[in-house]
Every structure is written in C-alpha cells, then in structure tokens.
C-alpha cells in the first residue's frame, strides 16, 4: 500500500513505555494541524483505540493510527524516536514535506 506508515522499533518501544506508565493502550495517534513555523505541525497523542476510517500500522504490538485527512499529508512517512544531546523526541521522516523546520516538528508541502 503506497499510503503505508512505518513506526520504527525505537518509537514502538517508547510508546509502549509511555502507555504502560499511563495505564493506556499502546496506540500512538499521529495527526497534522495547521501551524508551526513551516505551515503544518505534527501532533502525537496516546489513543484509546482506532477510528473506523483510520490507517493502522503495527510494530511489535504497538499501533500507529492516522486519520484520513492527516494521511494525505504524511503518507509514506516513518515515525521514529530519537535521543540526542538536544533531547528526546518523536520524529517524522515525511517524503511529502517540501520544507521543514530545524526542530523537525513542523513542515510545508
């Protein structure tokens, strides 16, 4: 499927840890909102479940869910969790983004 999204093992492990601490299902919802320094910004939340029309990707028992509107902007992306001297964060490698910001949390098409 060309619209497939990928959750890396590092991201899946981090979601599982957060979900366990918060006593929630290991389901990460990725959505896109208007804003940020490049026009759109990524939003991450733990979800209770997937909606009927969500795209669902599974990695090591952790699910990544994306609504159809956001999917148009992030299709083919890889969601990773990276730790560096600057901090730790989920990062989206989005092949659809024509521009991005230095922090990696917003993008333009």
TrEMBL record:
It comes from the Bacteria. One of its GO terms (molecular function) is 4 iron, 4 sulfur cluster binding. It comes from Qipengyuania vulgaris. This is Iron-sulfur cluster insertion protein ErpA. Residues 5-104 form the Core domain. InterPro entries: ATAP, ATAP_core_dom, FeS_cluster_insertion_CS, HesB-like_dom_sf. The lineage of its organism: Bacteria, Pseudomonadati, Pseudomonadota, Alphaproteobacteria, Sphingomonadales. One of its GO terms (biological process) is iron-sulfur cluster assembly. PROSITE patterns: HESB.
């Amino acid at each position: 499927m060309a619209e497939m999204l990928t959750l890396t093992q590092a991201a899946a492990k981090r979601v599982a840890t957060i979900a366990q601490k918060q006593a929630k299902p290991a389901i990460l919802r990725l959505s896109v909102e208007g804003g940020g320094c490049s026009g759109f910004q990524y939003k991450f939340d733990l979800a209770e479940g997937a909606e009927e029309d969500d795209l669902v990707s599974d990695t090591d028992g952790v699910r990544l869910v994306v609504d159809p509107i956001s999917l148009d902007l992030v299709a083919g992306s890889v969601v990773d969790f990276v730790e560096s001297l600057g901090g730790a964060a989920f990062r989206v490698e989005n092949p659809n983004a024509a521009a991005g910001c230095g922090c990696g949390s917003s993008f333009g098409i």
